Amino acid sequence: MLNDTSILVTEDEDALRELYTMWLTNAGASVTEATNGDEALEAWDDSYDLVMLDRRMPPGMSGGDVLAEARQNGLTTPVMMLTAVEPEMDVLDMGFDDYLTKPVDQDNLLSIVRDLVQATEIRDEVREFASLGVKIHQLQKNHTADALRMHTEFQSIKRRYNELLETLSVAENEFTDYEKHFLLLARERLDESDLESENSDPEAPADSASQSTD
């Protein structure tokens, strides 16, 4: 259950916003609704346990704009991007904790929400590790291996992910039970094919990553 949990839901489509609100309130959460980016940024403060952001909300501020400004303002609230927009390379610079493409089912949404509302209770390195894993996973679903292998910033976050994986694995016995749970979830995001060797020859042929419309 999500009792005593406060969530800001930002979605410009009335039917979807009302649906998400119903799912969350039925699970015990207290929900504030915003219909566009300006409303979201005005409402967003440290009192929320989670912010759900639609990425494309014309006209006005996009979800990405709202997220960037909120982070610049020092807001560290966990953020779930919930959008119909398939991720492009610009997500590498976004400060979200999870990225879901519509449509999403109730059980999956609530499961992820239950994990994210506790993200502020884990150490920064675990949270960063999980966020990087989401970005790698999403981009490898939607771009070819060749394209990603040649993308400097993508390769940089993969190296950072692997560095964190090594560091966190060594220190795992110091973690709280929830940090261990969060780390396990983050690892499960990526299978072995997602973690191809950083030493791969950029000129070597590679299979195309499967396309997903989620």
CATH architecture annotation of the largest domain:
3-Layer(aba) Sandwich
Using the coordinates shown, work out and report the CATH topology of the largest domain: Rossmann fold
Could you describe the largest sheet, including whether it forms a barrel?
A: 5 strands, parallel
Taking the alpha carbons of the first and last residues, their distance comes to 26 Å
- Distinct helical segment count: 8
Low-confidence runs: 197-214
Can you tell me the CATH superfamily of the largest domain? Response regulator
Overview features:
Rossmann fold; 214 residues; alpha/beta; globular; 5 strands; five-stranded parallel sheet
Q: Could you walk me through the main structural features you see in this protein, from its secondary elements to its overall organization?
A:
- This protein is of the alpha/beta class and 214 residues long.
- The chain has 2 domains: 6-121, Rossmann fold (3-Layer(aba) Sandwich); 124-189, no CATH class.
- Helices cover 46% and strands 11% of the residues.
- It contains 8 helices and 5 strands, in the order βαβαβαββααααα.
- The protein has helices at 14-26, 37-43, 63-72, 106-116, 124-142, 145-149, 152-171, 177-189, and strands at 6-10, 30-34, 50-53, 79-83, 98-101.
- Strands 2-1-3-4-5 form a 5-stranded parallel β-sheet, with helices on both faces.
- Strand 1 (6-10), helix 1 and strand 2 form a beta-alpha-beta unit.
- Helix 5 crosses helix 7 (152-171) and helix 5 (124-142) runs parallel beside helix 8 (177-189).
- It is globular, with a radius of gyration of 17 Å.
- The chain starts with 5 loop residues before the first strand and ends in a 25-residue tail after the last helix.
- The relative contact order is 0.12.
